[in-house]
Amino acid sequence: MPARPEKRATGDAAETAARHLLEGEGLRLLASNVNFRFGELDLVMREGEWIVFVEVRYRRDERYGGGLASVDRRKCRRVALAARAWLARHPELANAPCRFDIVAASPAGLDWHRAAFTLDDL
Predict the structure, then answer these.
(1) Which has more confidence, 32 or 71?
(2) I need a surface site. Which of 13, 42, 100, 112 has the fewest CB within 10 A?
(3) pLDDT surpasses 70 at 23
(4) Is residue 32 within a helix (H) or strand (E), and if so which, with residue range?
(5) CATH number given to 5-121
(6) GO molecular-function annotation terms (predicted)?
(7) Segment holding 55, helix H or strand E
(8) Domain ranges across the chain
(9) CA 27, 18, 102, 77 torsion: positive or negative?
């Protein structure tokens, strides 16, 4: 089921804010909103030699743990599968070191978690 328009707009704004935050820290955007049938990549960025796959999660309410807590093992697996597929489409980057970051967004702001999970966690 597609997201409601206002929910999609909030998510888009959170992704844009996250991108600006990360670019301000020196990362360079390679791709955004990359969809595969088994998963999605919100942002794909480069930091030096690293390819950084960024999951952006907006939560209006922190009662249930906020954006970081909302990224469970199942979501991590889907992001990892999408990252593998993206790298297969970009063989020139396939041997670069990779990491998975999460930007938790809320009305209070953005919280960037570098290397929030690894393939070993899955």
Answers:
(1) 32
(2) 13
(3) yes
(4) strand 28-36
(5) 3.40.1350.10
(6) nucleic acid binding
(7) strand 50-58
(8) 5-121
(9) negative
Tokens matching residue 104: 């938790």
The answer to whether the beta carbons of residues 49 and 97 sit under 8 Å apart is yes
Question: Per-residue b/e over 75-113, b at no fewer than 16 CB within 10 Å?
Answer: bbbbbbebbeebbeeeeeeeeeebbbbbbbbbeeebeeb
Give me the residue label for tokens 């909103």. 33
pLDDT 10s digits, 39-78: 999 999 999 999 999 999 988 866 666 777 678 889 999 9
What is the pLDDT at residue 20?
98
φ, ψ of residue 38 to 5 degrees: the values are -105, 0
